[in-house]
Amino acid sequence: MSGQSWLIAWIGKTDHEAAEGKLGKDVGPIATALTGEPRYSRIYLLTNYDFARSKRFCAWLEKTTGYDSKQVDLYQVDLESPIDYAGIYAAVSANLKGAGLPREDVELTFHLSPGTPAMAAIWIILSKTRFPAKLIQTSRERGLEPVNFFFDLASDFLPEFLQRSGERITRLAEGAKELAPAFDKIIHRSTAIRQQIELARRIAVLDVPVLVLGETGTGKELFAEAIHAASPRSAKPFIAVNCGAIAPELASSELFGHKRGAFTSAVADRKGHFREADGGTLFLDEVGDLPLDTQVRLLRALQTGEVTLLGASKPVKVNVRIVAATHRDLASDVAAGRFREDLFHRLAVGILRLPPLRERDQDAAMLIEHFLAQINADAKGRPEAQEKKLSEGAKKVLQSYEWPGNIRELYHTLVRAAIWSKGPSISAEDAQAALLQIRRQGDTVLGRPLTQGFDLKRILDEVARDYIARALKQSGDRKTVAAELLGFPNYQTFGNWMKRLGVDSTD
Ligand SMILES: Nc1ncnc2c1ncn2[C@@H]1O[C@H](COP(=O)(O)OP(=O)(O)OP(=O)(O)O)[C@@H](O)[C@H]1O
């Protein structure tokens, strides 16, 4: 960028009072910013005070700071109220636009200190969106300081977003309700999921990036599909990519494509997932696993709407909505430098948080019913098919389990339990055996995180159930022997434990 630098600010009460000699030695925020370095080529001031008073301020400012009157511009801006955010946003945007901003050759700086907090907030928003600008502030104690913000609001959506009234968004989302039966696939009874679906519906119709957070198997991809189906892009492709499954050295070529010969193993042209999803939605699962160089390219693609194939010289336009997902704590990845902060803020415009199944009140019971019906329907017509039902004991076992693998684990457990049960009824042991399979892969009974939803009693019950099932198996289902194996004083105590925990070998 060459040439000009402009300082833009509201004239505040303190500035006027300083010019009027009411503050002793204090020269006020604007003059403080203009007495030292840097020297700006233009001072662009806005006032919502009496214009003549602000003119006198400008004359004083020139004398105090040595700026030339030709460098100082003053504009009267009519505001209904100095604390009306929407009014300030509209008035300032119109004024700056009228001045031909933003301009390639003009570097803008907004001064946050003069004016009301609402005015400062609007400067921040504008600096991150329509009018990219540096931010400064001044104080009596510390003089002039730059203000660094860690976030980057996506410049292509926010102005549009602010102009849409809440009503319009709701109407759009209502329309999408009828058009998007995809959300119906998300089986739930919990308030937490209902709220996330409501949010997803609203976000779906806005063309903004979405970040879906949640443990493995919580339904992140299901939500991404539903968002796509409820969006104006639904007729275009939905491409799902598991970033965690791509070798780091191939990540850029998988996403952005390559020309034949771009690198040794590039034996043919490759389109890349971005271009495959053109017009539609690209679902980047496990986005936190992308290597840093691919993150840089992804950020650039989002900022410019263009991708450059590896080995190509010119970029090509793409129009893709990103829905990203991760089970990782991306904020700590950002802190550790593993994930780019600017990319994080670009992706996390709409955020959905899917709680683990153990924190979803009653969802497990509903999902169990749903999946069992599905398993029965899938099996229908096969010669050996039997309509399977869960015994009360099996229900207890499944409903009190923690589901570290969430809905995916629940589904596979049911499939296994249905296969293993010999008769039409799935017993508690069948359920137990189907669960144990997974737990053995990495039992973490002693390593579970102490997070919300932690329930020691439940974990102890799980352990007890596990041993009781093993003892029954080892004893050939003879309860007296099983009781002995477990160190119970008598058969009755053992029976009571079985009953309480829903383990019933005879059901
Ligand atoms: N609420 C739900 N209702 C019905 N099915 C669900 C629900 N949530 C998830 N599923 C199903 O569970 C399985 C796992 O869900 P999904 O793949 O969306 O999870 P994920 O969070 O993307 O997992 P990962 O992080 O491991 O990629 C899928 O078969 C999905 O259809």
Structural features:
single chain; 507 residues; alpha/beta; Rossmann fold; 6-stranded mixed β-sheet; elongated; binds adenosine-5'-triphosphate; Sigma_54_int_dom_ATP-bd_2; transcription; nucleotide-binding; Sigma_54_int_dom_CS; ATP-binding
Task: Characterise the protein shown here.
It contains 21 helices and 15 strands. With about 500 residues, it is α/β, with parallel strands linked by helices. The protein folds into 3 domains: about 5-150, Hypothetical protein VC1899 like domain (Restriction endonuclease-like) (Rossmann fold), CATH 3.40.50; about 160-355, P-loop containing nucleotide triphosphate hydrolases (Rossmann fold, 3-Layer(aba) Sandwich), CATH 3.40.50.300; about 360-500, Orthogonal Bundle (Helicase, Ruva Protein, domain 3), CATH 1.10.8. β10 (about 305) and β11 form a beta hairpin. Bound molecules: adenosine-5'-triphosphate. The site of adenosine-5'-triphosphate has 17 residues, from α9 and α17. This is Sigma 54-interacting transcriptional regulator. Keywords: ATP-binding, DNA-binding, Nucleotide-binding, Transcription, Transcription regulation. Pfam families: AAA_lid_14 (PF25601), Sigma54_activat (PF00158).
Q: Strands, helices and their partners?
A:
Blueprint: E1 4-10, H1 13-19, H2 28-35, E2 42-47, H3 51-65, E3 72-76, H4 85-98, E4 106-111, H5 117-128, E5 133-139, E6 143-146, H6 158-163, H7 166-179, H8 191-205, E7 210-214, H9 220-229, E8 238-242, H10 251-256, H11 273-276, E9 281-285, H12 292-304, E10 306-307, E11 316-317, E12 321-326, H13 330-335, H14 341-347, E13 350-354, H15 363-379, E14 389-390, H16 392-399, H17 406-420, E15 425-426, H18 428-439, H19 456-474, H20 479-485, H21 491-501
Parallel strand pairs: 1-2, 1-4, 2-3, 4-5, 7-12, 7-13, 8-9, 9-12, 14-15
Antiparallel strand pairs: 5-6, 10-11
Helix pairs in contact: 1-2, 4-5, 7-8, 8-9, 15-17, 16-18, 17-18, 19-20, 20-21
The site of adenosine-5'-triphosphate (ATP) has 17 residues, from α9 and α17.
